[in-house]
Each structure stands twice: as structure tokens, then as C-alpha cells.
Amino acid sequence: MNAQKRNNTACSAVISVVISLVMLFGAILQLVAVPGQASAAKGVVWKPIDGGGLSAGTSANSGSRDPSIAIWNNQLYAAWSEQKEYMNNPMQQGTEIRVMQWDGSQWSAADDGSGLNFMSSSSASSPSLTVFQGCLYAIWSEAETSFMGGYPFNQIMAKKNCGDGWVSTTSGSNPVSGSGRGEMPVLLVYHDELYATWIGTSDGSTGRKIQVKKYDGSVWTNEAVDMTFVPNGTAFGPRFAVYQDELYLTWSEQMVDSPYYSYIPVMKRTINGAGKVNWGNVSGNSGITNTTTSAGSPVLQAYNGLLYAVWRDNNPAQLKVSSFDGSIWSPVGSGNLDKPEGAQSQAPNLFVYNEKLVAVWNDVNSQGFQWDLRVVEYDGTNWSPADQGLADTNLGNVTSFAILNNAMYLAWSDVSKIHVSERREPPAAPTGLQAVAGNGEAELSWNLGSGVAKYKIYQGTASGVYGPDPIATVDGTTGHYKVQGLEGGTTYYFVVTAVNGNGESSFSVEASAQLTTQIATVSYLPGDHGTISGTSEQVTIGEHPAAVPTVTPEEGYHFAGWSSDGGITKLSSQEVATSTVTADVTYTAYYTAFVMGDADGDGKVTAADALLLSKYIKGKITLTPEQLQALDMNGDGQWDDEDVKAILAISVGKG
Fold first, then answer.
1. CB 509, CB 496: distance < 8 Å
2. Sheet containing 344-353: order of strands
3. Looking at the domain assignment, is residue 292 inside a domain?
4. Number of structural domains in the chain
5. Same domain assignment for residues 550 and 486
6. Tens digits of per-residue pLDDT, 572-619?
7. pTM here?
8. How far apart are CA 586 and CA 522, in angstroms?
9. Do 558 and 499 fall into the same domain?
10. Which is nearest to 83 in space by CA: 418, 325, 357?
11. Residue 181 and residue 207: Cα distance in Å, rounded?
12. Among 251, 254, 568, 613, which residue has the least CB neighbours within 10 Å?
């Protein structure tokens, strides 16, 4: 027994050491994280914001389900169906549509405290929220509560809230579905009109066919009436999507008679020459499943130039995923969304957040007792888990999502209350970075992302190695930057990150700019009265000319200097040789006529010329042969005081 205790103690000590080392290693990894690299740290997990579950009533089990969330006036709104009793009679139960709003810190009623139902004794379900023309819209299915049995006569009802409370979108309490039946409605805004679709019949008979109406802010009009994929089909769960500025619609459908085939059609809305709306099949004769086995719950979402579809294949219970490029459908990766062995996947949803495609669904274990919410993100290449920190409520129902202030929100039901969680991620890494080399500079450009407050630019002279601090920061609406002061003959490497209140993204794909050594041509022209020993030379930008030619003036002329501006400014050959070359330049030689007594070449005889000769006589300076020729006033080949006196006499007008 004691030996066993010692062994257990030793084992516990080893485990403690291992745990400590693991924790230390994790801390070290956080400390050495590369600047600009995103990490699964604080702010990249789901955080519940529902205070343990939302319910408009006081019951511990309110039977709340079917949540739908939307953003209106920069606040999060949630609508759902919730149980209620009539006339204080617990035996007379119904459900009502309740709405609450979250201001960032707390939830409050947003339905006047009485729900949205039109009828006092009715059951309502499947609400859908959206924002249209600045107002919050809600649509749902509602049927009068009855104890007589039979098939409930569900109708589609809708209200809007433009800031002054909820009002009907139709005359009085008339249903959007008119005299027809309706269930499972959804809303979508397209081309400044509100579209609604549901399953039901236009004449009130039993059955499930696709109905579509649009609303211009005043009137609902039909867009599709009693539409099915096959003549004897019954439809379920219609969903909209907009792709390449076109409206698409999908649903699941099963034949009501043998052989009971199932289909997932995808239809595209078009207008013919007569102005009539048509819904054209873009999914083939068997729908996007390419099979007639049992399938359901399709959803659509446009992302990165493709239209994505996810649906449930019931044999086995697996979620399938395909994409549409406007012509053909293709499996995405393996064509499946991964799931644990033995689990059954259901109720998928798709949306886009942070420039990634997000898929949400439930995995149910084989006994049906454990429902796990799954969230994954797709960057166009790989799927990655994104459900860290998501509450485990054991049960799940319809999922709904919304985006607000760079955060994504997910809502679901545990069949008792509504749960809402928030996830905040740093922005996605910028895409499309390009670098164009210039003269000592590089022009950078990249694609603008959404929800970005600013961009940071990092630079290095080796691929994949950048300075720890950005060389520049620009605001989130700027997709370009000019890097200056770079050296020719060097290759520079650049990356850009995006930043908002959630943090800094990972690095963009690297771009490089190879700056070549810049060469300028310095040209020389002889001018009108002389010759030169050279005509041009090549000079590295930033360097000095090294081969300024010798000028030989014609007889009777002095060389006055070089000029590149038409003679306004003249430079000596020495001054040209010490100038800095910044671009191609042409120098022209300028001259003055030979004048006896003019030693400085200004074309005049002055006391300054006499001074030059005097200094020469005393041995203090040297003069050129041309200058000496001009200063030999008496032509005796000697330079003395007689020449100085003659020059001074001329300078004062007595010569």
C-alpha cells in the first residue's frame, strides 16, 4: 500500500512538472509572437451575451425557439417564438413572436411588451428579421389556436418598425400570404425591394409549394406562385442569396408519390422581354445533389466570386458543400463538411465575416441527446474551426447570425431559451499587395478590406524578415503608399497588416521591389564660339560628373562657363564637376568676346582686371594663357606695372 502511494505521489509530481512546462511553453510562444501575426488569444473566442438565455416571459422553460437576429440603428435585435397561455389557462397554450434589443451592455424589450402576433389566441413561429429602407421588418407564420384538431391554417404575417412602434405592412391585419397558407418565411433585400419566400399554397389548400413576393415599401406583389421543381413535389425551407447582382433561390423538395425522390434545386430570377419574372433552373435536372437520395436544409451564400451551397445529405447525415461559378457546380474540397464519427449534421447556415465564409450547423449524436453547435471558417482554400468558447447547451435549434461593429453574432435555441454569443477577430490580412520600383522609391498598393481602421506597412531587405515596427501607418480607406529614400541596386520586401479595435491581422502575402542603379546622361554642347574635348558621360544618380570636357574658345573669345538653363546661370568646369546629378542634363559652353584688359572674361575692363594682373605679378595667383594675352596691354610679352596702369586708365575712361 505504501509503495502504491509513493508511486502515485511520484506520478502526480511528474504530471505537475509536465503541466508546468506546457504552460511555460505556451507563455513563451505568446512572448515571441511575430509582430502582425494573428493568434487565438483574447478576443478570438465566442463570448455569451445573453445572461444565461433570453426569454421575454418569466417562465424557466419558455419554450423559446426559432431565433432570428439583425442589426438596426447600430443595435442587435433578436426575434423568436415563445410559449404563452391565454386567459390564465395553462391548458390553452400558444406561441407568440417576441423581440428584444441589445445596446452593447443589456437586453430590453423591443415589442411593446406584448409580442407581434396579430391574433390574440394564435400560435406564431419561424420569425425572420431584416432591415429595409431604414426600418426593421419581421415576418413569421401565424395560425389561430384551435382545440378542434385538423391541419392548422398557417398564414404569413409581417410588421415593420420605423422608430414609432410595430405596424402591419398590409392593410389592417391582412396576411402577406393573402388567402393562402404559409410556413417558414425568410426575408432578403434585393435591388431596393424586400423579397419574402415561404412554403405553402396560394389557394389555402394543404400542401407545400414555393411562394415569393416582393414589397416596395407600400404593396406586396407576386413573384412566384405555387412553384415546385417537379410536378408532384412538396417543398421545404426556401432560402435566398444574391450572387453577381442576381437573385437566387433554393429549397429542398421531395416527391409525394413513389419513387419519392428528393431534390435540391437552385433557381435564378430573370426578366423576359415582356417584363415577366421567370425562375430559371441553374442546378441541372436532379438539382445540385446530382442524386435523388434524401437531402434537405440547403443554404446559399456568395463569397469571393462564387456562389456556395451547403445542404444535408441524409444518407448518411452529412453536410455537402459545392460552389457555382455562374455556369457549373463543383464540390468544394472533399465536398463534405467534417463531422465526428457517428454524429448527424443538420441545420446549416452560411454567411461572410472578416472576408471568410462561415458555416454554422448542429452535430447530433446517434442517440439524439447531445447537440453541438459547429462553426468553421473558409478562406477560399481551407476550413478552420471557429467555435472556441462557444457555449455547450446540449440542445440546438435554428441558428441565426448578424455582423455589428466588426463582431459576428450567433443565436440559437436550446428549446427553452434563446442564446446569443459574440466573436471578435482581428481583420483579415490585406490581399492584392503589389510593389512597383521607382527612382529610389517603391509604390505599394493593396485591396481595401471591410471593417479596417488602419493599415501598417512593414519592410525588410530579406524575404520573410521585416523590422519589428511598421515603416508607415495609413488610415483604413487608403490602399496605397509610396516608400521613399530607398537605395538603388537593393531588393526590398514589403508586407501590410490591417488593424481595428479587435487587433492586428496577420501579414499579407509579401511583395518585393528591386531597385536598379539609376543612370543619368550628362551631355555637353560646344556652343557658338569654341570646341570641346567630349560630348557626354554616364553618371550614377546622386554622383558627380567625372569627365567635364576641356573648352577651346575660338580666337577672339573667352570661355564664360557652362549653363543648363539657357545662359542664365553659368558654372565653371570645376563647379560642374562637383555638382550632384539627379536626372539627365545638358550643359552648353558660353563665351564672351576677347577684350584687351579683360582678364575675368566679363566683357569689360575694370579695376578687378588690374587687380588680377597685380596679384599675378606678385606671384600670388596663376593665369591662363588667354588671360595673359588679354593683359599684355603693350604687346611686349611682359607683364608689369605699365600694363596695370594701362588697364586702370581704360577702366576710368582715360585709356
1. no
2. 344-353, 356-364, 371-378, 383-385
3. no
4. 3
5. no
6. 999 999 999 989 999 999 998 888 988 887 778 999 989 999 999 999
7. 0.73
8. 6
9. no
10. 418
11. 9
12. 568
